[in-house]
Amino acid sequence: MSRYRLIAIDLDDTLLDNQLKISPRVKGLVQELRERGVVVTLATGRMFRSSRPIALELGLELPLITYQGALVKNCFSGEVLLHRTLEVEYAREIIGLAREKGLHINLYLNDELYVERLSPAGEAYARLAGVPVCLVPDLTGLLASENAVDENPVEAKLPYANGRTGPTKVLLIGDEQYLDNLQAVLKPHYGARVHITKSKPNFLEFTHPLANKGAALAELAKYYGVSREETMAIGDSFNDLEMLEYAGLGVAMGNARQEIKARAGYVTAANDEDGVAEALQRFCF
Questions:
Q1: Mean pLDDT, the chain, as a whole number?
Q2: pTM here?
Q3: By three-state DSSP, how is residue 98 classified?
Q4: Distance (Å, rounded) from C-alpha 30 to C-alpha 13?
């Protein structure tokens, strides 16, 4: 019997190989774990609608950690367990700054992807995520005022939701070094008011201050009655650090950067070498 009862796995560059496929070996191991009563879920920066087809391919019909942990939603029933949105004021500031710098901006609202222009970077992102893009003239115009009536009052009353007036996430796409420098400036500026992370070298992401994969995994563990020591997390990037550190066992992929590997409990093979399968086989069977 596996000592790990809840396993969270990142998608891009972790579960998915470089062709965005899941290996047959991983599928078989996940199915066997599910038959043994182990909860296996996805923990990704992707949108819920982008993650759901992958979850269903694995036969998962349970809550998924999406948007870096800002939204935890059941991919079968649609039940929302957690939704933490970014304050409108900060979202508008970030969008304004990105416009000045000429960066591509993705705005995520109600599980839709909005952009002001169809740049090559934006089109590449949409292909990667497999989602349609909504082109609008002004992203800030989509953000309702603080006094707006919520279109989904039931969801707005969830314990960890702060309403639907703010976006679930804002993502900027640009040069890696430029985004690193921008992150170094914005992190101390926003402090604990905004969570800022990178999921890929050229993606800089902004969410609610408590929206990270580690916090979401902790809530999911509580939901299933699983102790921290009984959780396992597998990831490769900076946006995975919180969940790798929260989990009883944090596993970094072989293709992860050294900074990520240094903070993991175990380093498995790369995503193109079936690293997730290796980790599951080693620690769960």
A1: 92
A2: 0.91
A3: helix
A4: 18
